[in-house]
Amino acid sequence: MKKIVFLGIFLVFFLSFNVSAAIQLNIYVDSTGDSLFLGETDEIELVLPEGISLKDGRITGFTPNLTMKSGDTWIFEYYLDGSEMNVILPEGARISELTNGEIFLEKNQIAVFMQEGAKISYVLDKNPDSENSIILIILAILIVGAIFYIINYLKSSKENDKEEKKESKIDNVKGILNERERLIIEKLKESGKIKGSYLRKQCDIPKASFSRHVQELEKKGLIKRTGEGKNKFIELNE
Known about the structure:
Elements: H1 2-19, E1 23-29, E2 35-41, E3 52-55, E4 58-63, E5 67-70, E6 73-88, E7 93-98, E8 102-106, E9 109-124, H2 128-174, H3 179-191, E10 194-195, H4 196-203, H5 207-219, E11 223-226, E12 233-236
Parallel strand pairs: 1-6
Antiparallel strand pairs: 1-2, 2-4, 3-4, 5-6, 6-9, 7-9, 8-9, 10-12, 11-12
Helix pairs in contact: 3-4
């Protein structure tokens, strides 16, 4: 009788030992769909996904092969006979469909406990901080662009005003200029600041006459001379 009781206890223990999982896994899925395996097993050999290894009873590694994306929905699917696994989904995940398992929270992240595997469909909430950062960057670019536009506009307006004042000043006295003086003014408009000798050649005016006309224009405040000797320059007076 004692032998029968002992045999019964042994069978219960043996059966309970064999029905318990020989493979314990934690699978951490990140927001890009990669899966990190951390687990233990008594098995010597296992068929594992690419990137996952078994060494000294420890299961470790990364694999991107357990997830796929369709639109906004991610699908995780994995099966391994004799295993118990916790699948921890990325932060912000919301499960839309689950074929097997129990849902629980793991450090404020949704996780699923399952035996021998399951298929999980989930969506990721958009990160508001990331969206706000993008909006701030766009606003910063727009503001900087607007500042540059305003600076260039003001600079251009200032230069245009200066040119208009110069033109107005010349137009006011143009009626009292002789033909050669008007020619000198027109050449200076085209060339800007220029050596006196070059300007005289462009105007084709005799040297003595040219000097007299330049002096007259300078007295009227229309031009100014700078430099000395051979490096004398003439330009319109602003």
